[in-house]
């Protein structure tokens, strides 16, 4: 398809959408979902071009409230800016890559990373629900995080999850001891 890495943002998206990259069960004769990296603010152009070419696309648009000095307005934005999801087989790669605005396909080892149908269906369901949503940092168990607000602001530790919620584990390596502090997910950001 294209080069392995297009930008640093690509790596972030790969962590989000490609956790189960090659484990996507496909319905017979159905193309896999792939993520396309597109030029800035060209998601709509790419989406309509691929649809005209007969390919299924998905861009998770959500409404965001914007306030100017004289008015408040709701505008649509992509939850994953710079990316468009597309159903495409390998033999359709030229059709996809020739669309104006397409930079590359998210790939690993020169193979397009397929996105599981279930992840696209979940995203689609969340968008269609009409519930408020916003992009969120991808956090996983064991990742280093920093508390951004509240009484714990500034501490760093390792993210842990248990049945009661999320915790930041702070360790004193010399003593080989740790403490776990319960936090809300909106308080932490990845380091």
DSSP strand content: 25-35%
C-alpha Rg (nearest Å)? 20 Å
Count of DSSP H/I helices? 4
Return residue spans where pLDDT drops below 50 for at least 5 consecutive residues.
1-28
List keywords for this structure.
five-stranded antiparallel β-sheet, alpha+beta, single chain, 35% strand, 19% helix, 191 residues
Describe what is shown at a glance:
The chain has 191 residues and is an alpha+beta fold.
Q: Helix and strand layout, with pairings?
A:
Blueprint (H helix, E strand, L loop, with lengths): L7 H10 L15 E6 L4 H10 L4 E2 L2 E7 L4 E7 L4 E5 L5 H5 L4 E4 L1 E2 L2 E2 L1 E2 L1 H12 L15 E4 L8 E7 L2 E8 L4 E7 L4 E3 L1
Antiparallel strand pairs: 1-5, 1-6, 1-9, 2-5, 3-4, 7-8, 10-11, 10-14, 11-12, 12-13
């Amino acid at each position: 398809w294209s080069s392995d890495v297009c930008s640093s943002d690509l790596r972030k998206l790969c962590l989000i959408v490609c956790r189960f990259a090659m484990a996507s069960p496909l319905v017979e004769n159905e193309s896999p979902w792939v993520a396309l990296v597109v030029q800035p603010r060209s998601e709509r152009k790419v989406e309509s071009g691929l649809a005209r070419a007969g390919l299924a696309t998905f861009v998770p648009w959500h409404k965001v409230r914007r306030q100017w000095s004289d008015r408040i307005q709701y505008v649509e934005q992509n939850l994953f800016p710079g990316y468009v999801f597309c159903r495409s087989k390998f033999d359709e790669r030229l059709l996809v890559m020739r669309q104006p605005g397409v930079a590359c396909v998210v790939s690993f080892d020169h193979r397009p990373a397929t996105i599981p149908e279930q992840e696209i269906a979940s995203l689609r369901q969340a968008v269609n629900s009409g519930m408020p949503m916003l992009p969120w940092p991808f956090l996983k168990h064991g990742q280093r995080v920093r508390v951004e607000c509240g009484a714990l602001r500034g501490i760093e530790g390792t993210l842990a999850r248990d049945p009661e919620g999320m915790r930041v584990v702070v360790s004193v390596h010399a003593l080989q001891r740790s403490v776990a502090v319960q936090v809300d997910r909106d308080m932490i950001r990845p380091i």
